[in-house]
Design goal:
alpha+beta, five-stranded antiparallel beta sheet, 8 helices, 10 strands, 50% helix, 14% strand, rod-shaped, Lamin-like protein, FP_C, Transposase_22, coiled coil
Length: 307
């Protein structure tokens, strides 16, 4: 846009300024004698500045001079310049329209890509859900197989007892020791009831090796385990040695069941469960002798659920 100069103070005018019918361009205020608010409310087509008002009568009485005509033509040309600029504006609008069309095409292309990505995402989510279902089924199958293996391994030991706390001697006779234990727990000892017995290394070096006894029948094994609780036995009572450590007779558990029994005791004893024991491939727990609400535990998940 062309820059105009104030007809009064000869300084550059802002975009908004006063324009009198004589072509004078002035600042609002002292230069023009009118405020912007009054200018906007008034009739702009007939407004004259102070200078033009003073000379209006004189100019009306005088013939138009060449200078006045020249100034009028200059003013007219100034007014016609915006019309001349319309063509340039039209070209600019056309360029903008082309840009808008290009942007619209790009936007449509982007929408199509987003739609394709959304379809692909849904397909991937469907496949992921299918894989999750398959994995859950396989996890359940694995857990079932693990439980069966655990039961089979424990079933293979259902005629065994594990004796801990017995002092070890190079010259010991395990049959004699078993006979002594039988007397202490009031069980009739018969060597024919035993298939095999031997010591196994202990995980703790300070403890003597444990003795594993395999009976010929499960009922004999159960009879020994039932009677073990009627008397407390120490090693020196049955081995003739010096150690007076307590002798324990327990079911011969797999390492996995041992850990599960230990975890159950760690969780349940502090919250009031007095009895936690293993029997027939299950762990049982109750708070006291009269408690009929016996909890059955067969996995770590069962322990975690107890509150």
């Amino acid at each position: 846009m062309p820059q105009y100069m104030c007809s009064n103070c000869d300084t550059e005018l802002p975009f908004d300024h006063a324009l009198c019918i004589s072509g004078c361009r002035l600042h609002f205020g002292p230069c023009s004698g009118i405020q912007e608010s009054s200018w906007r409310k008034g009739d702009k087509s007939s407004w004259k500045c102070l200078s033009c008002r003073k000379t209006s009568n004189l100019k009306d009485q005088k013939p138009v001079t060449a200078e006045e005509l020249r100034e009028f033509m200059l003013t007219l040309n100034e007014k016609l310049k915006p019309i001349q600029q319309i063509e340039t504006i039209n070209e600019t609008v056309q360029e903008l329209q082309k840009s808008m069309d290009f942007m619209s095409g790009q936007y449509d292309s982007l929408l199509l890509k987003v739609h394709d990505m959304e379809v692909e995402r849904r397909e991937q989510n469907g496949k992921i859900q299918e894989l999750k279902t398959i994995m859950e089924e396989k996890d359940n199958s694995i857990k079932t197989l693990q439980a069966r293996v655990r039961e089979c391994e424990q079933y293979a030991r259902n005629r065994n007892i594990e004796i801990s706390g017995l002092e070890f001697s190079e010259s010991e006779n395990l049959h004699d020791i078993m006979n002594n234990i039988a007397q202490k727990i009031n069980v009739q000892y018969c060597s024919e009831d035993i298939d095999i017995m031997h010591r196994v290394p202990s995980r703790r070096k300070e403890e003597p090796p444990k003795v594993i006894v395999q009976f010929t029948t499960r009922s004999v094994r159960n009879h020994w385990l039932k009677n073990k609780k009627y008397d407390t036995i120490t090693s020196d009572m049955v081995t003739g040695g010096r150690a007076n450590t307590t002798v324990y007779l327990n079911s011969h558990l797999t390492q996995e069941w041992k850990h599960l029994l230990w975890a159950a005791k760690q969780k349940l004893r502090p919250i009031g469960y007095k009895f936690v024991w293993f029997s027939e491939s299950k762990i049982y727990a109750k708070k006291n002798e009269k408690d009929r609400n016996v909890i059955i535990i067969s996995s770590q998940e069962d322990i975690d659920k107890i509150e």
